């Protein structure tokens, strides 16, 4: 199988700190991949490099056969890469519906004025409504984004991330701030979207129950490096991984 995204010797350094170091990542298309690791391991930095929000100091990034190492984020979105953020990235005063619609419009009208054609506006509204249903936000659609619950705001972020119809989507802690039941629900939703939309998801997640039950592949990072990569059972049996998660159930 060919990877959908891969890196060669990727590195990002903040002064003395090797946030990401010598990372050779291979993500296979269609496999639900989780990136785990302790706080400060470099997970967010890696996602930032892959999605173009940071530029690497060393190494290269390939999306399928195309090298995208220094591409701007919006150019990556156009070829099918999107992401959500660990910290909320929504327009608080706009309604839930408007937040999704804006993301859809940005895709449908890539090269023109988003408000130019009535026909494309109608298609965008329909698409936004479909996404609202998919991410369970129909009932909240007319509320300002700032006034919905924290859990619903995470769902909104997910909706915005899929609104660009990505082939590859990075989610940085999509269930942060949720209770354990909400966590499993939102990650099951991501899996469902992955299957229905044929999107490859790479998620950063701290909830080990969720990670081990839902992932096809797990990438373990520690101190900027990939410590281990494999199927959940392989990772569970890895002594080095057990050591860095000392005391936690994995
Ligand atoms: N902009 C920055 N400037 C300086 N240091 C940074 C910057 N961004 C990240 N770092 C450092 O790089 C290392 C990796 O950070 P990163 O945010 O990627 O970790 P993480 O695995 O996402 O952690 P968490 O689980 O807490 O979200 C940390 O030591 C962090 O302090
Ligand atoms: Mg992080």
Describe the model.
- This protein has helices spanning 43-51, 73-78, 96-108, 118-134, 150-163, 180-197, 208-214, 232-236, 239-244; strands at 3-14, 17-23, 26-28, 33-36, 58-63, 66-67, 81-83, 168-172, 200-204, 217-222, 225-230.
- By secondary structure, the chain is α/β, with parallel strands linked by helices.
- A 6-stranded mixed beta sheet has the order 7-8-9-4-10-11, sandwiched between helices. Strands 1, 2, 3, 5 and 6 form a 5-stranded antiparallel beta sheet that branches.
- The longest helix is centred in the last third of the chain and has 18 residues, at 180-197.
- Residues 14, 17, 19, 37, 39-45, 86 line the site of adenosine-5'-triphosphate (ATP).
State the main characteristics.
single chain, 250 residues, alpha/beta, Rossmann fold, six-stranded mixed β-sheet, five-stranded antiparallel β-sheet, 9 helices, 11 strands, 38% helix, globular, binds adenosine-5'-triphosphate, binds magnesium ion
> So how many helices?
9
| Gyration radius over CA | 18 Å
Q: Which small-molecule ligands are present, each listed once?
A: adenosine-5'-triphosphate, magnesium ion
* Main sheet record: 6 strands, mixed
Termini gap: 28 Å
Given as residue ranges, the uncertain stretches (5+ residues, pLDDT < 50) are none
Average pLDDT value? 91
Query: Which structural category do the helix and sheet elements fall into?
Result: alpha/beta
Tally the beta strands: 11
How much of the residues is beta strand, in percent?
Answer: 15-25%
CATH level-four homologous superfamily name of the largest domain:
P-loop containing nucleotide triphosphate hydrolases
Q: Name the strands of the widest sheet in spatial order.
A: 7-8-9-4-10-11
Helix content: 25-40%
CATH topology of the largest domain: Rossmann fold
